[in-house]
Every structure is written in structure tokens, then in C-alpha cells.
Write a structure and sequence with these properties.
single chain, 1450 residues, alpha+beta, eight-stranded mixed beta sheet, 27% strand
């Protein structure tokens, strides 16, 4: 029979049970494991035991084995003869069964197939399968593997056992079953966990000799509820189980300390014995407190029965074996150096309290051997040093742990601490909070120990609690017994030469007789997995070092190498060729590749020097979760197959994984076996959430810190959050370097909890997940808010002159790790001030331009900073990198700073302007302090908007009297915004608020600051905010997508130098496209479409070579080639489709109301024709069902075409095309919009285009004011009698007056007087104020299709109204100039007409038309709509009164 036909690729379950097969009992067992619930799977058939082979051995099969053997839950499904091979037959098991309905039930009986014949000739014992079960009992939640709450497995879940009638014999059975030696304590009254849903409903009645708990008699509790006072906790010890004090063979409360170690009584050596240890012994034996610890001859001769194990008790423990213990390298101990204790002998005896104020006499010989007959509740410990014998010194008193000040702290003081703690000799007395600053009280200061005192608080000092220190002066020690462990290898973390730190020196460890359990313990202690191997075949190691220790023999109950017995410490414990080289299982490495980041991509594993992949057979989210957690990448979002991230190369290490999702390493999941597969690089991949992210408004590289250990993001508090931790985060996210760490940000209301650990990164870790973490006390971190981090590719700045960095010189900045000089083309004094402040060099004196001071080849950056001058760091300023111009070596930015951070310069005089013929510019500044700042607002970008100046704490504006391009040039250059394109007036960018600082400016265009131009004087004016001045600079940028029917998809265009032009797609990648889509509010991703047809028409191709980085949050920050009119050919124009693409809501680019969504087509005038409506991105028709004069009336009124004359049906104006959007329209005739009428749902119709509806209206179409037409008004309607209601009232009043006065006048005379009044009305309108911006009533006039930004776009329905202002110079900008651009055609080819700038003294310059439409999707720079790009001239924002015309002063 072909074996392959019997196999299932997924969900194979193997049923092993005691059942009848052919009349014979089939038995099951696990052999050669550590206990009966783990081992090699063996089945007995017809009296013969055989092993089992299964090609697909998964946890589902192990679960059934564990259930049948009553061994708890499945832990692992090892194969490859993990528990060793066995002779005898090999049974072949296979099956295919339905999936389980839940985790505790398997439907396997109907699909089981067992070939009970010997397959020795087909399979090898090298592939024997095994099973690891949890067992039926466990000790959970203790401080070591063999202690904790007693829990038993019900077959479905772990259930706690109560302390009701729980006995020590039962505890002994549990300890023996778990291989944990003997029970040394049974603690009752322990609280149950919150998650404990039920309590075990039986009492165990063990005798103590049973092999396992399940064999013990059990008695059901009455009513299913056991009487108890809490959970029961058991502590086992394989080594230390009993304790006594011996004097001449009798055990009492005084004598030599002896302990039962692994069933053998041993005396303890006194070399590290302390009074704290003695107090624990006396308490444990019920002998009161320790009086002394005398040392002397061995009281009872026991030859070699001496143990060098060292206990490190605080003195508060209940049992000696509850104290930290060190057995490694125990020193030889003579019979004259045995530990002894003299206890007070009475458990209830109360000793007097020791006096804090009396130190031991200077010449006292008191030591740890004796203690006064008094009670001292103080405790001593060392913390944050990585072990019991190194760290910051802390003393517990009055329930508070406090520190010692380092004043006069020396080795004599440290010796007392080390000896008191049983930590050997003092190697170093550290100061200045070497192990970190503590908290709480400072108990001691100015210590002056002799080195022989028994307790550190008995040394002479200032007095208890008296000091003049802070915690930055906390004292610490390093003792000789401090131990540390490491592996030494050039290129691996979890493989190498094993070294131990002892007596202040690193030395090697000898490998005799190092066993598997010892190697596993070492790997676990180093965080390198649970297993490893000793490699004796490596070449001899170079160099010399101590060989500190040999003969290490670890036991199952040992939790660290320090607890393992060994030979004594010796500088040459073995020869160099016997040094241990260990490879842990975690020497394998895991990575994700080709996914665009460290937390997404194809899964690859490094083993045996080769990177290999994982086959996607059975690959799912549980497998992916293990990968993501192992890499510190948060939770798994997707498990990809079929080489989603491309096919790998090299070996395929794993196939048919069956992870539970909880494994620590992906190679610990059940699989076919290491290197066994039947794939051809159908490689598996994952997409992880990432463990850390920065959440803010400025992209993924700045914001508050959040981590995701599981399914949700959790904020990190600012408590003890360091710059080193921030550096690790920025590096992990690919965001450059951390430039600032901020705190005190309030948590959001949605934050359910705060991360309960502190990160202790060194700054060199590759991921935050790998940084050491310290739990916050009580699970709550002390903080003042959420931690915020700002990363940047711009990380350092310096001023260089002839190779030295100081306060004067060429400006250089570290960009992505490379120093670059900055170009001076857009460098401003505000930028220079920020640099000087950041470097602690005072304020900027000047910004000279000249030759490249230090020749650095091509290391010149054209990135442009736009600082206000108040920023603390240069990289905090807005920055533009797109289209940076070529920069020559004689045009690099330099700064001369005042050189003294505290220097106070005199205040600049506001009232004195620069002389008219002054050559002063931004290159130099007077030696005075000018705190004024300049900005442009409400223009949609940094380089366009209303001009505002900050002075005296208030932002104010500039009046537009005399405002022209020369004034605008100063503003643009001062802001580093290039050349001035337009000087706008009449509050074109909206009316400001606050003071009006300047009026009647008369700049030459060369001034360094706009406030240095001649003017009326600072704060003097005769203006209102309706006259606020604005500018449009050449560096103003905007972005849009062009397509008729779609938003968020189309040809990408950028506005630069006053003209819309296309963007080239080379070498645009996913990061760049994502930034563009995000900037336009079109989602976080998109794609470049290179298959669209060639675009019609001609336009500039402004920029190519855009290469955005992850740190950029807008296109303007992305480096690119310089601006060029012909950057690429038309076929290389970029067409982008974003994830948020959708049909246009309006037929045009500007916002619209219902009127713009309705039109008439095919008629003989603009007020007759087929009715068409705009919906879902396209024009469609209306069906004539129920079409009547009432519906026609609504259409005519909505279009401003008068009354309806006829409701036309049956496609009288010709059939339309596209969708039929509306049917069964039913209006009352008074609705303001067709949309207000009842109708069938959009697009639901049973009509054809032969039924298209139309209308004939009475009059010519009128253009309603913008407020009615739907766009935002450029200005409010004129107030008073010259509004439409006012004119009507005037006419009616005049008629009434004439009727009352001349009642009998003839009809002809009455008509003549009426005409005279009408003439009077026209003359009056013309005589009104010329500078009033009359509301343009025609829509086309408002939007000015031929305006500055329209780019020649045509609208057949547009009708332009004449400009109402007499001083407007026609189309285009008044005073507009265009900056020459490489490759640009002459201006005459771009615009048909351009009016030269004019300026007359005392006359206000007006702007004829405004910038036009950007498109609804355009987001110029900062993600907000720019009103001036969506509407016409913003004239008067509204008058509340009328001023009398007056002449402006000359």
C-alpha cells in the first residue's frame, strides 16, 4: 500500500489508547523521559513493545496521548528519536480526521488507521516520535521551579488545590513525582488568584510513599466544596531539606549548623556565614533570635562532611533554603572554620532595641561572630548591580529602604558591607550613584569604618538619618563574590567560549564533567533558549586568562549556574584545551527580509552558517505570532504564503509547522523535523504590527511612544524614560536619530492603561524589545505624562573654520550620519539665530556668504530651513528639500555668532530704518538684539499668505498702502522663500487681528528685514485689517491630482514658481507614493500607474528623482533633483492611484453646492435643454416619469433661469448618455433644489435615454452671488442701502413719496421723473468709494478662469464679468514677476498677456485677480485647504460702516 495515500497535509491526528485491536489489548507508555509523562512513545501489541513512526507528528496527537495517560496537557511533539532510539518493532500510525470543535475534544475514532506490523525495513528508529506532557500536577507561581501553588489538571484545565486537610505526606509525593526532592515546607492560607474559577473538589489522602499523586486515595469533599482557608503552597528542595544545631551529638538551640543536603548531613563552612543567616536558622528551629555566630574548631568530627555552600539571607526569611544560595566554586573549608549559632532559646523572648546612635568603639573587635543582646530590625542589601554581591547599598529601617551617601566612602566601609552580606572581600567602593540613584531616605553620611565592624550602621558617622547629600551621591560596592556570566564570540550572541566573572576578573569555565542539564541551565540563564550543546572540537583559544572553575554538576532544581556544586575556585582549574565552548539553541537567528522593514517579510533562519526559509504548508497566524514575538515585533497581522515576499534561496529548514502561538522560538514548534520538507521555496512570510510606534500629527517619526505586546497599543510613561531608549526606538523605526525627548503630555481618554515597565536601554540595542526592562513598583510607573520622542535625519549641527568647530564658520549639519555644508541660497538670519542658540554661542551677528571654507567635494546640501528664530533646534524648523537648486562652493551658508550665550546685546531701535542706499542685507545684522519675528499665514504654506510680525508679544499685520513687489521681495528673502511673485493687498488672505505694525512701506528690495524699510513709523497707520498685505513667493508649493471623475487618483501636479506642472515618476517608490497620498488626505498607501496613456497638452515637468524617506511627512521634505522646466519627457509623468480614491463629489475642482451639480444640455440657450445632474463622479440624466411643470420650476429657479415655461419629455433635446440618475421625481414647485424633491433612490430606474427629461425656462441665466452659488464668498454683501434689499426699499419709498406729493400729475410726467431717479441711482453708485471691493456677482468672474493658477483650463459654461475696480491692470497678477527656471520658455509663450509692475507714491497697488483652483484634493503642504486657492479675490471681509473718502498723506 502506498504510504502517501494514507497521509493528510494538515490536521493529522494520531490516536494512541488502550483499546482492543483484533482481540488484543493495545497498551501505551512514554519511556526514557524525566518522568512518566514525557518520553518516547511506545505501544504494546501482542505482548511486544514497539516504537511509533508518524510522518506528521503534531501537538494534536500528543494531546490525545496526554489525555489517555492522564498526564495533563501537551507541551511538545518531539521527533527524530529525541528521547533516544530503541530496538524492536516500529509501528506505523497515520490518520486523517476532522478538525476539533474545541481545544479539549478530538474526533479521531472514525478516521484512525494503524498498521500494526513491523516497519523496520521501511523506517529507522532515528525517527521515533516522543511526547512531552505537563503532568497531572504542578507547582505554579513560585520563585523557582520546585515551589508554588499546588494545581492539578482535570483533563481540560489547571485547577488549584485548597489547604483543607492538605498534609506533608501529600506534599512529599508531589515533590517526588516532579523530581524536586523532598518537601521542605507547606504553606496554607494563601490567596487564590483572580483567574481561579473553581477549586479542586477532592481531598488527597497520601501516605507519602506513593509514586505519584494520582495513585493516592482521594475523598470527594461534601457537597463538592472543600472546607479551606485558602490555597496551598508547597516548597520542595532536592538538595536542602532539614536543618539542625549540633553540640556533642544532640540537637538543640546552640551549636554547629548542619544541613541535610541530598540526604546527607553536612556541616556548613563559616567563611561566608552571617548573622542574618543565623537569625533565619534560629527562627526556623523555633529558637528565638541569634545571639552570636562563634567560629571555632569542628565541634563534632565528621571528616569530609563539610559544605561550602553560601547563603545570602536578609534575615527575614522563614527557611534557610528560601535565601539566595551560591554553591559554585565553594572554597575549601578547614575543620576549624565551621559555622555555629547561639540562639536566644525562646521564640517569644523580646530583646531590647539596639540604639541607633551608638557606634561600636573604634578599637572594638566586634564582628559578625557576635551580636549584642539587643534586637536590630534593620536589613542590608545591594541592588541594581546584577547580583547579590554588587550594587547600590541600601538599608531597611522604619519600613523604608534608604541609601548611604558617598562622602568619605572608601574600601574600609565597603569591606563591612561585603562581609555583613557574606559576599567575600570588597573589590571596589563606588561613588556618584554608580549603580543608579536610589530613592527614599538617606540613612548614613560621612562613614568612617575601620573595616572590622559587624554592621555598617555601627561605623562612626554623622548620625542616623543626618546628611547633606542627594541621591546622585549614593554609595555602592563590588564584592569578590559577585558573579557574572557571558559567552565570548565575535559574531554570535548565544554561542561562544563560556566565561565567568569572579574576584574582579573574567575567566573561562572548564567543561569537565559538564552534562546536558548544566548546558541547558547556562543557556537559559543567558536568555539563549532552553537547551544547547558542548562543542569540544573547536580549535584552541588564543590568549591567556584564568580558568576559574571545573567540576560543575547542576541539578534539576538549580535555577542558575551559581547554585550548582563544583570544585573550588582556582586560577588554573584546567588546561586551556579544556575550556568550555557552548552553542545554545538560540544561536540560531531569525529575520524578516524583503518586506520593507524589520517587522515584515519572508521568514528566514540562520543555522550552520546558512540562511534558510520556512515552507508555507500549514502556515497560519499562530505560527506567525511566534515569529513576531520572537523578533520583538508585536502581534501578527498576517501570515503570508506562496512566496508573497519573493522566493528565498538556500535550505528550507522547517515544514508543516504547528505552533500554538505561545512558543518562545519558532523552531520549538512541532514540525516535520529540522531540514525535512517536501517544498520548493513556497516560502512563508509574516506582517507584524511592530512592538513600538510613535503616534503624532507629523508622520511616523515623531510623537508619543506606544508599545504593543499583544493585541492593543499601550502608551509609555515619561518616568525614567531616557534619551538612550529614544535612540533605540528611532533606529528601530528607521527614523534616524532621536533629537529630543519630551514628557508631560496628557494621556488620551481612550488610554485604558499605561505600560507598567521602565526600559533601561544602553542605546546600542537594535530593538526596544531587547532592552532590559524593570517592572514599576506596584505595577504603576511614576510619571508626569506620556513620553514623546522626535526623530530626525538631521541630528547635529556645527560651525567649521579650518577644521575646528566653534562659534563662527561654515554651517554644517549631520544628515543621515554624513556631515554636509548647507547652501546659502535660502539661508536667513532667523536660521542663523537658531544655530547660535543651539550651539550655546549667543545670537547671530551676521551670515556672510563667500567661498567654501572647507573643501569637502560634493558634500553640499540644498535643504532649506524656514525658521522663525525662536526654535531651540535647527531641525525643529519647517524644512523643504524638494527641488533644491544646484549650489556652488562659493555659496555656502556661514554664521558669525556673538559667542557668549549670556551676552546681552542692546535692543534694536524700532524707529530707525536702514538708509535708502544701504547695502545691508540678510548677510549682516547690527550688533543689537531684535526679537521680532516674521511669518506668513492663511496661505496654505510657509511661503505665501498674510504678512504678520511678532513684536511685544503680539502678532500684527502690515497695511497695503504702498505695498508692492519691492516690499514683497524683502519678506520672501527674509523667510528664505525665494523670489516674490506677487504682492497682494485688500486682505487677500483674510483679515488679520491685533495691531497693524507698519504702513506706507517703501522698500528698495535689498533690506535685511521688512521692518527696516522706510515707513510711517512703527505702529503708526491709518488702516484697518481689510487692507492687510500679503505675499506669494516662488518657493510656495502646492500639490494636486488631476482627473475629471476621481478624487485621490490622477496625474500628479505640483505648483511651483507660480505655475502648475507635472511630477516625474523616476525613481518613485512605495514610501514616496504613500507620503503623497497621506499629504493629500487620500489614505496611507497607493500605487504608481505606468500603463496609462500619454497625457494631452503641454505643461512644465517640474521635478524628478524624488526619494522620500520614512522620516519625511510631506513631499516638500523629500530630496530630489533640482527644479527644472523639462525634468523628464511627457511619458514619464506620474499617475498615482491612492487607497482612498473615490468619485468626485463636484464636477469642478472647487467646492460646490447643488447648483453646480445641475446643468442643461442640447437646448437653444443656456436656459433650455436636457436636464443633467452630477452624481458619483459623473453626469447623468433624469427620467421623464412623473416629470411636470412643478419639477421644471425647481430646475429653472435653481439655475437662475427665471420661471419654467415648459416641462419637456421624451428626450426632446436629444438622448443623453451615461447613467440615468433620477426617476419618479416629484416636486412641489417651491423647493430650492432638485435634491430636495422626492425620487427613487439614486441610479434606480426602469427608463431608457429616450425618456430623458428637459425644461424651457423664461429668461437668460443669471449668476447668483457666491454665497448662493455655493462657494465661499470672497467678501460679504455690501451693507446699507446699496445691498439689493436696500435698493428695493429706496425705489418703493420714492414711488410712495411721488404718489403722495404729485397725486394728480399726468402719467407721462410721472414716467419721466421715474427715469430721472434711475439715472440718479446709477450716478450715485459710480461715485461711491473706489477702494470698496464690490461683490462680483457672476460666478465666472469670481473664479477668473483665465486667472493666475488656472493654467489655461477652459470651461465652456463660464462667463467672465468685468472687473469692478478701476485700478486693476487686467488679467494676471499686478506687479507679478516669474522667477527664471532652467529650461523654461519665454513668458510670452506661457501667458498671452502680462502687465508690467507699476508704482506711484501715495497710490495703493491693487491686484487684478487671484490664484485660482487647486482641486478639491489639493492639500498645499500641511493637510489643510487653502481658501485663497479655492475662491476668487478675497476683498473686503465686511464693513460695519462706511468711511468718507479721504486722501492718504504723502
Amino acid at each position: 500500500m502506498a504510504l502517501g495515500r494514507h497521509l493528510s497535509l494538515r490536521g493529522l491526528c494520531v490516536l494512541l489508547l488502550s483499546t482492543m485491536v483484533g482481540g488484543q489489548a493495545l497498551e501505551l507508555r512514554l519511556k526514557d523521559g524525566a518522568h512518566r509523562c514525557e518520553g518516547r512513545v511506545e505501544a504494546k501489541y501482542k505482548g511486544e513493545w514497539g516504537t511509533v513512526y508518524a510522518e506528521y507528528w503534531l501537538l494534536a496527537g500528543v494531546e490525545e496521548v496526554c489525555r489517555q495517560l492522564e498526564c495533563g496537557v501537551a507541551i511538545d511533539a518531539p521527533r527524530g528519536s529525541y528521547f533516544g532510539p530503541r530496538l524492536g518493532p516500529i509501528w506505523f500510525l497515520y490518520g486523517s480526521c476532522e478538525s476539533r470543535e474545541d481545544e479539549s475534544t478530538l474526533t479521531l475514532y472514525k478516521c484512525l488507521h494503524i498498521h500494526l506490523k513491523n516497519y523496520n525495513d521501511t523506517f529507522s528508529h532515528d525517527q521515533d516520535i516522543g511526547a512531552v506532557c505537563s503532568g497531572s500536577v504542578r507547582l505554579f507561581g513560585g520563585d523557582r521551579p520546585c515551589s508554588g501553588h499546588v494545581e492539578v489538571h482535570s483533563g481540560k484545565e489547571w485547577i488549584p488545590v485548597s489547604d483543607g486537610n492538605f498534609t506533608l505526606p501529600t506534599a512529599q509525593v508531589i515533590c517526588a513525582e516532579l523530581g524536586c526532592g523532598k518537601a521542605v515546607s507547606v504553606l496554607k492560607h494563601m490567596p487564590f488568584r483572580e483567574s481561579d474559577g473553581q477549586v479542586w473538589a477532592e481531598e488527597f489522602r497520601c501516605e507519602g510513599e506513593e509514586p505519584e499523586l494520582w495513585v493516592c486515595p482521594r475523598v470527594p469533599c461534601p457537597g463538592g466544596m472543600c472546607h479551606h482557608s485558602g490555597a496551598v503552597q508547597v516548597a520542595c528542595s532536592a538538595a536542602y531539606s532539614e536543618l539542625r544545631l549540633m553540640t556533642n551529638g544532640s540537637s538543640q538551640c546552640e551549636g554547629q549548623v548542619e544541613m541535610n543536603i541530598s540526604g546527607r548531613w553536612r556541616a556548613l563552612c563559616a567563611s561566608h556565614w552571617t548573622l542574618a543567616n543565623a537569625n533565619v536558622v534560629c527562627r526556623q528551629l523555633g529558637c528565638g533570635v541569634a545571639i552570636s555566630t562563634p567560629r571555632g574548631p569542628h565541634l563534632v568530627g565528621r571528616d569530609d562532611q563539610i559544605s561550602a555552600v553560601r547563603f545570602h539571607c536578609l534575615g527575614t526569611e522563614s527557611f534557610l533554603w528560601s535565601c539566595p544560595v551560591t554553591a559554585l566554586g565553594g572554597s575549601d573549608c578547614s575543620h576549624g572554620n565551621m559555622a555555629s549559632v547561639t540562639c536566644s532559646g525562646n521564640q517569644t523572648q523580646v530583646l531590647p532595641q539596639c540604639s541607633d546612635s551608638l557606634p561600636e568603639p573604634t578599637g572594638s573587635a566586634a564582628s559578625g561572630e557576635s551580636a549584642p543582646y539587643c534586637s536590630d530590625g534593620r536589613r542590608l542589601r545591594l541592588v541594581d548591580g546584577g547580583g547579590h554581591c554588587a550594587g547600590r547599598v541600601e538599608i531597611l529601617d522604619q519600613d523604608s529602604w534608604g541609601t548611604i551617601c558617598d562622602d568619605s566612602w572608601d574600601l574600609d566601609d565597603a569591606r563591612v558591607v561585603c562581609r555583613q552580606l557574606g559576599c567575600g572581600e570588597a573589590l571596589n567602593a563606588t561613588r556618584s550613584a554608580h549603580f543608579g540613584a536610589g530613592s527614599g531616605p538617606i540613612w548614613l553620611d560621612d562613614l568612617n569604618c575601620t573595616g572590622k565592624e559587624s554592621h555598617v550602621w555601627k561605623c562612626p558617622s554623622r548620625g542616623w538619618g543626618r546628611h547633606d547629600c542627594r541621591h546622585k551621591q549614593d554609595a555602592g560596592v563590588i564584592c569578590s563574590e559577585f558573579l557574572a556570566l557571558r559567552m565570548v564570540s565575535e559574531d554570535q550572541q548565544c554561542a561562544g567560549w563560556l566565561e565567568v566573572f569572579y574576584n574582579g576578573t573574567w575567566g573561562s569555565v572548564c567543561r569537565n564533567p559538564m552534562e546536558y542539564i548544566t548546558v541547558s541551565l547556562i543557556c537559559r540563564q543567558l536568555g539563549c533558549g532552553d537547551s544547547g550543546s558542548l562543542n569540544p572540537s573547536v580549535a584552541l583559544r588564543e590568549g591567556s586568562r584564568p580558568q576559574w572553575v571545573d567540576g560543575i554538576r547542576c541539578r534539576k532544581t538549580d535555577t542558575s549556574l551559581w547554585q550548582c556544586p563544583s570544585d573550588p575556585w582556582n586560577y588554573t582549574s584546567c588546561s586551556p584545551k579544556e575550556e568550555a565552548y557552548i552553542s545554545c539553541e538560540d544561536s540560531r537567528q531569525l529575520r524578516l527580509v524583503d518586506g520593507g522593514g524589520p517587522c515584515a517579510g519572508r521568514v528566514e533562519i540562520l543555522d550552520q552558517g546558512s540562511w534558510g526559509t520556512i515552507c508555507d504548508n500549514g502556515w497560519d497566524l499562530d505560527d506567525a505570532r511566534v515569529v513576531c514575538r520572537q523578533l520583538g515585533c508585536g502581534d501578527a497581522l498576517n501570515a503570508t504564503g506562496s512566496a508573497h515576499f519573493g522566493s528565498g534561496s538556500g535550505p528550507i529548514w522547517l515544514d508543516t509547522l504547528d505552533c500554538r502561538g505561545k512558543e518562545s522560538h519558532v523552531w520549538k514548534c512541532p514540525s516535520r523535523g529540522w531540514g525535512a520538507h517536501n517544498c520548493s521555496h513556497n516560502d512563508a512570510g509574516v506582517i507584524c504590527s511592530g512592538f513600538v510606534r510613535l503616534v503624532g500629527d507629523n508622520g511616523p517619526c515623531s510623537g508619543r511612544v506606544e508599545v504593543r505586546p499583544g493585541e492593543e497599543w499601550t502608551p509609555v510613561s515619561d518616568g525614567n524614560f531616557t534619551l538612550r531608549t529614544a535612540q533605540v526606538i528611532c533606529a528601530e523605526l528607521g527614523c534616524g536619530k532621536a533629537v529630543s525627548v519630551l514628557g508631560h503630555e496628557l494621556f488620551r481618554e481612550s488610554d485604558g492603561r499605561v505600560w507598567a515597565e521602565e526600559f533601561r536601554c544602553e542605546g546600542e540595542e537594535r530593538k526596544l524589545w531587547w532592552c532590559p526592562r524593570v517592572p514599576c513598583p506596584g505595577g504603576t510607573c511614576h510619571h508626569s505624562g506620556a513620553a514623546q520622542v522626535i526623530c530626525s535625519v538631521y541630528s547635529e549641527v556645527r560651525l567649521m573654520t579650518n577644521g575646528s568647530s566653534q562659534c563662527e564658520g561654515q554651517v554644517e549639519i549631520n544628515i543621515s550620519g554624513q556631515w554636509r555644508a548647507l547652501c546659502a541660497s535660502h539661508w536667513s538670519l532667523a536660521n542663523a539665530n537658531v544655530v547660535c542658540r543651539q550651539l550655546g554661542c549667543g545670537v547671530a551677528i551676521s551670515t556672510p556668504r563667500g567661498p567654501h571654507l572647507v573643501e569637502r567635494g560634493d558634500q553640499i546640501s540644498t535643504v532649506r530651513f524656514h525658521c522663525s528664530g525662536a526654535e531651540s533646534f535647527l531641525w525643529s524648523c519647517p524644512v523643504t528639500a524638494l527641488g533644491g537648486p544646484d549650489c556652488s562652493h562659493d555659496n555656502t551658508a556661514s554664521v558669525i555668532c556673538s559667542g557668549n550665550q549670556t551676552q546681552v546685546l542692546p535692543q534694536c531701535n524700532d524707529s530707525v530704518s536702514e538708509p535708502a542706499d544701504s547695502a545691508a542685507s540678510e548677510e549682516s545684522a547690527p550688533y543689537c538684539l531684535d526679537s521680532r519675528q516674521l511669518r506668513l499665514v492663511d496661505g496654505g504654506g510657509l511661503c505665501t499668505g498674510r504678512v504678520e510680525i511678532l513684536a511685544q508679544g503680539s502678532w500684527g499685520t502690515i497695511c497695503d498702502d504702498g505695498w508692492d513687489l519691492d516690499d514683497a521681495r524683502v519678506v520672501c528673502r527674509q523667510l528664505g522663500c525665494g523670489e516674490a511673485l506677487n504682492a497682494t493687498g485688500s486682505a487677500h488672505f483674510g483679515a488679520g487681528s491685533g495691531p497693524i505694525w507698519l504702513d506706507d512701506l517703501n522698500c528698495t528690495g535689498k533690506e535685511s528685514h521688512v521692518w527696516r524699510c522706510p515707513s510711517r513709523g512703527w505702529g503708526r497707520h491709518d488702516c484697518r485689517h481689510k487692507e492687510d498685505a500679503g505675499v506669494i513667493c516662488s518657493e510656495f508649493l502646492a500639490l494636486r491630482m488631476v482627473r475629471e471623475d476621481q478624487e485621490c487618483a490622477g496625474w500628479l501636479e505640483v505648483f511651483y514658481n507660480g505655475t502648475w506642472g507635472s511630477v516625474c515618476h523616476n525613481p518613485m517608490d512605495d514610501v514616496t507614493v504613500s507620503i503623497i497620498c497621506s499629504q493629500l488626505g487620500c489614505g496611507d498607501s497607493g500605487s504608481l500607474n505606468t500603463s496609462v496613456g500619454l497625457r494631452e497638452g503641454s505643461r512644465p515637468h517640474w521635478v524628478d528623482g524624488i526619494q522620500c524617506q520614512r522620516t519625511d511627512h510631506s513631499l516638500w521634505q523629500c530630496p530630489s533633483d533640482p527644479w527644472n522646466y523639462n525634468s523628464c519627457s511627457p511619458k514619464e509623468e506620474a499617475y498615482i492611484s491612492c487607497a482612498g480614491r473615490r468619485p468626485k463629489s463636484c464636477p469642478g475642482a472647487a467646492p460646490c453646492t447643488d447648483r453646480e451639480k445641475l446643468r442643461l444640455r442640447g437646448g437653444d440657450s443656456e436656459c433650455s435643454g436636457r436636464v443633467e445632474v452630477w452624481h458619483s463622479g459623473s453626469w447623468g440624466t433624469v427620467c421623464d416619469d412623473s416629470w411636470s411643470l412643478a419639477e421644471a420650476e425647481v430646475v429653472c429657479q435653481q439655475l437662475g433661469c427665471g420661471q419654467a415655461l415648459e416641462a419637456v419629455r421624451t428626450a426632446a433635446f436629444g438622448p443623453g448618455n451615461g447613467s440615468i440618475w433620477l426617476d419618479e421625481v416629484r416636486c412641489g414647485g417651491r423647493e430650492s433644489s432638485l435634491w430636495d424633491c422626492a425620487a427613487e433612490p439614486w441610479g434606480q430606474s426602469d427608463c431608457k435615454h429616450e425618456e430623458d427629461a428637459g425644461v424651457r425656462c423664461s429668461g437668460a441665466r443669471t449668476t447668483l452671488p457666491p454665497a448662493i452659488a455655493g462657494t465661499r464668498p470672497a467678501s460679504n454683501p455690501l451693507p446699507g442701502i446699496f445691498s439689493l434689499p436696500g435698493v428695493l426699499c429706496l425705489i418703493l419709498g420714492a414711488l410712495l413719496f411721488l404718489v403722495l406729493i404729485i397725486l394728480v400729475t399726468q402719467l407721462l410726467r410721472w414716467r419721466a421723473e421715474r427715469r430721472a431717479f434711475s439715472s440718479y441711482e446709477g450716478a450715485l453708485a459710480e461715485a461711491e468709494y473706489e477702494e470698496l471691493d464690490y461683490l462680483v456677482t457672476q460666478k465666472e468672474g469670481l473664479l477668473d478662469i483665465a486667472g493666475y493658477l488656472s493654467d489655461g483650463e477652459d470651461d465652456k459654461d463660464s462667463r467672465s464679468a468685468p472687473d469692478q475696480r478701476t485700478d486693476a491692470p487686467g488679467e494676471g497678477y499686478d506687479d507679478a514677476e516669474e522667477v527664471p527656471v532652467p529650461g523654461a520658455p519665454p513668458a510670452s509663450q506661457v501667458r498671452e498677456e502680462e502687465v508690467p509692475p507699476e508704482k506711484e507714491d501715495g497710490m495703493r497697488s491693487q491686484t487684478g485677480s487671484s490664484l485660482f483652483i487647486f482641486g478639491e484634493e489639493a492639500d498645499p503642504g500641511e493637510g489643510e485647504e487653502s481658501p485663497w486657492l479655492l475662491q476668487g479675490d478675497k476683498g473686503d471681509p465686511g464693513y460695519d460702516d462706511i468711511d468718507v473718502p479721504q486722501e492718504h498723506p504723502q
